[in-house]
């Protein structure tokens, strides 16, 4: 299971630069957007195209349905990338906790080089 932790200020700067290089708008730190796994799945698909079929998700605003989307994303994407998260972290993600999403994206950034090697 992936270790979700708060990023240091330096790690956050590195993450922001990486997201900019990937063409991802940094407006994602809006809790209303972040609580929906669909938004983060779209980011993952920008970073690693074809990783997941986005039709599996429906945009929701209620906590129980957001949590369901995060469970699906955890099962279909994160665990396959060896980045699966705990139920407690899934709840934080469903609540739109920006620090938890930042940590998740930071872990993806760290894993990117190994993902590219698998493609070659």
TrEMBL record:
Domain CH-like: 15-109
GO cellular component, one term: cytoplasm
Protein name per Swiss-Prot or TrEMBL: CH-like domain-containing protein
Pfam families, A to Z: CH_2 (PF06294)
Domain of life of the source: Eukaryota
């Amino acid at each position: 299971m992936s270790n979700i932790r708060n990023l240091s200020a330096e790690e956050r700067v590195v993450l922001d630069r990486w997201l900019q290089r990937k063409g991802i708008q940094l407006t994602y730190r809006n809790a209303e957007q972040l609580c929906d796994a669909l938004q983060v799945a779209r980011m993952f698909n920008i970073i690693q195209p074809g990783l997941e079929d986005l039709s599996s998700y429906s945009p929701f605003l209620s906590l129980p349905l957001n949590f369901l989307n995060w469970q699906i994303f955890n099962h279909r994407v994160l665990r396959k990338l060896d980045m699966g998260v705990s139920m407690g972290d899934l709840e934080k993600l469903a609540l739109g906790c920006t620090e938890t999403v930042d940590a998740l994206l930071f872990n993806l950034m760290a894993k990117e080089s190994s993902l590219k090697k698998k493609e070659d």
